[in-house]
Amino acid sequence: MADGLGAPLAAPLFERLALIGLGLIGASIARVAKRKRLVGHIVAADSSEEVRKRAAELGLADSIAKSAAAAVDGADLVILCVPVGAIGAVAEEIAPHLRKGAIVSDVGSVKSAVAAAFAKYLPAGVHALPAHPVAGTEQSGPEAGFATLFCNRWCILTPPDGADPKAVARLSEFWTAAGANVEIMSAAHHDLVLAITSHVPHLIAYNIVGTAADLETVTRSEVIKFSAGGFRDFTRIAASDPTMWRDVFLNNKEAVLEMLGRFSEDLTALQRMIRNGDAQGLFDLFTRTRAIRRGIIAEGQETAAPDFGRRTGEEQDRS
Amino acid sequence: MADGLGAPLAAPLFERLALIGLGLIGASIARVAKRKRLVGHIVAADSSEEVRKRAAELGLADSIAKSAAAAVDGADLVILCVPVGAIGAVAEEIAPHLRKGAIVSDVGSVKSAVAAAFAKYLPAGVHALPAHPVAGTEQSGPEAGFATLFCNRWCILTPPDGADPKAVARLSEFWTAAGANVEIMSAAHHDLVLAITSHVPHLIAYNIVGTAADLETVTRSEVIKFSAGGFRDFTRIAASDPTMWRDVFLNNKEAVLEMLGRFSEDLTALQRMIRNGDAQGLFDLFTRTRAIRRGIIAEGQETAAPDFGRRTGEEQDRS
């Protein structure tokens, strides 16, 4: 197929997939699972009646369950697509209803906290395998989901010590078939890596948008009007789902504070360079940072096309 | 025309445009001036022989001059498209060669420093009118320029006290015909507005990319691999021209340090919220920042399409 997802599978990888939560990620998993025939049956649940209704209208799943407990009944793959802060409560709710041998996974941006919640609530006899597809947009809700969201993105699995290698392989296969590349690491290392590549970037984006909104010397209308100079890109990041991000910061406190400490230390040094008029120091830093971007483009995680958040047709017309 | 630039003018606005510097902005002005027939003749100069050669190959100008002094000879509009730090030297060089009544302008991201350099070096009898088109991409050089760069972007003019209103009107007309919206404000206010909407965002983007590159606990390869979580967008901003940005920070020191102080103060408060587990405080901030983005989309400075720096065809295919 032209969209890079490839042909549907000849035989499904799981009999019955239960998706708990139908936001951007849950809806995208539903779409790719359906399109690629990754599973025999998709049953979805969401705590919001409105979301369940929209999911039914969109035809996201084969059936919609009224509760997470009902959804997991008989499922051999359960993926919790809820904010990290809700994982414990959902794990507790579904625990008595899980099929023996089922794989229970999630998509949260924090992994140590999820591993702890799984260890606390899930019964023996199921495979608790936390996972994190590193993909997303700044949009939320079931309509925001799309089948190719995970294409050429990384999905990080953080199996706990003693996890069944066969179960890990089956979950890897699921994500690979969904278009992702799979990487396995410890939950603790995951939380450190994501703190610098995702959590702190979101934090400082939220922060500068907040700073700009509160100035007395520059009006909000001016901030909006002249945002094309760079600020605009931060507002996109700072438009992400507030509940999800609140939970990320509450549940990855230590790694975020550690990386934020580094960031602030470096920013203080940079501030001093500006104050002292250290032309060479500034130039060296601004040159060095280009190498990382070249690496990202080379890895296919970004295109080289100039963007700055602009994508109307006319702007892409080069003459 | 489909690209939003409209038909060429019936009569040119200026006889002879001298462009000093053929980077992204200079080359884009050349392209739009040619396409829209904004001027009778375009003469361009660049201190780099290599750039002059590429500009000739690209057909950017009607003629290429070997020096800025030679280029301004007879020009009724001179636009300096050089880094802010080079403005003084160029102004000094061209001063004895300027035609009486010529408008001398620039495109720098800092305006007080340019106004001071113009006041110091330019002779009486020419119209010194600093300007700043708030547009760009992270790419540099003559090849990066394109005719529609300024479409639906703002160009800020900061005429000094006592500037000739007719000259201001003529320069406004030029930028309007190039596709931009024109706003007039004082140089000091410009520098404050841009400090928050452009300079500090670039500074923190450069800073976090530097922080990530220097970690011992997370490898550079991991930073690159898992950059889709938000970091990637910062690397685009941090790939901008090092010389240009060094000069911005050296020449807008006070406003940048003031805004950076605000940013750091707010970041400290946010850090404390995380440390204290202040769920409501985090949620409130993350919700409030969405309003600014809605304003930017409503103003046409950004589209609502989800992006996060991803633009391959397959990723845009929603099913």
Describe the 3D structure.
Two copies of one chain form a homodimer. The longest helix of chain A is centred in the middle third of the chain and has 27 residues, at 187-213. The first copy, chain A, has two domains: 14-185, NAD(P)-binding Rossmann-like Domain (Rossmann fold); 190-301, 6-phosphogluconate dehydrogenase C-terminal like domain (6-phosphogluconate dehydrogenase C-terminal fold, Orthogonal Bundle). Chain A starts with 13 loop residues before the first strand and ends with a helix. With 319 residues, chain A is an alpha/beta fold. In chain A, helix 4 runs parallel beside helix 5. In chain A, strands 3-2-1-4-5-6 form a six-stranded parallel β-sheet, with helices on both faces. In chain A, strands 7-8-9 form a three-stranded mixed β-sheet, covered by helices on one side. Chain A is elongated, with a radius of gyration of 21 Å. The model of chain A is unreliable at 307-319 (pLDDT under 50). Chain A is built from 13 helices and nine strands. At the A-B interface, helix 7, helix 8, helix 9, helix 10 and helix 11 of A face helix 7, helix 8, helix 9, helix 10 and helix 11 of B.
